[in-house]
Amino acid sequence: MPYIETSGPDATDLYYYEQGQGQPVVLIHGWPLSHRMWESQITALSEAGYRVIAYDRRGFGDSSHPTGGYDYDTFAADLNDLITQLDLRDAVIAGFSMGGGEVARYIGRYGSDRIAKAMLLGAVPPFLLKTADNPEGVDKSVFDGMLDGVKSDRIGFLGGFFPTFYGLDAGDDKGKELLSFSKWIAWAASPLATAQCIVAFGTTDFRADLAKFTVPTLVVHGDADQVVPIEVSGQRSHELIAGSRLEVIAGAPHGFAATHAQQLNALMLDFLKS
């Protein structure tokens, strides 16, 4: 299995999956999943002539489960280690949900010398938390409730979370296998990472990072997203990134990479080829 070893005080091993040849496209998964969430995109992009690299964030999937480093400065450093150790150039970085934070913080800290384009897909930037200077944000009690749920009964919490994630009725057989697949992925994650990442994506301000974007950027969001509402995320990121392209998928929930995979794949390929 291919791994890279990260640098810094919280060094760890990151697993990555690679498929295809051509311009590199790095896929960064959402919480609480792994690179496996990108199954449809990996196939579509590699078949279209791209080198797809999907890695597992520290604490998730097949990466190591360290006891520290669950903050966006470290996540961005991990991404930088992946890009430099694989010597990726002219790369496209695409982050879903929490993974959009890595895209933002990476560009904010490391620039875009190795980056050709960026994608924010159902992503958490620019700033989810409601504060005095961010009144449109989400109340802190929402993140506190998630954190309490994960700490008190992580497995039970995940069972109730994914139907909302995918816009499915918990009592309906529709999407039953997708829910089972997602829970299987999430169960394997570090409980510590699962909890601490809620704090990371719920409280990190990416507004200064987005101001440093100079590469073409695609923003995709579902207008039925109940986890990361488009009004506080995708729409605002589009407004803050000069020249960005916003695509709204009608009726799509948060987990549209699976529920609306063909539409997302088409949008990603069109953007890559433009």
From TrEMBL:
Ranges of residues in domain AB hydrolase-1: 24-256
A Gene Ontology molecular function term of the record: hydrolase activity
InterPro entries from the UniProt entry: AB_hydrolase, AB_hydrolase_1, AB_hydrolase_fold, Epox_hydrolase-like
Family: Belongs to the AB hydrolase superfamily. Bacterial non-heme haloperoxidase / perhydrolase family.
Protein name per Swiss-Prot or TrEMBL: Alpha/beta hydrolase
Top-level taxonomic group: Bacteria
Keywords assigned by UniProt, alphabetized: Hydrolase
Parts of the chain that traverse the membrane: none
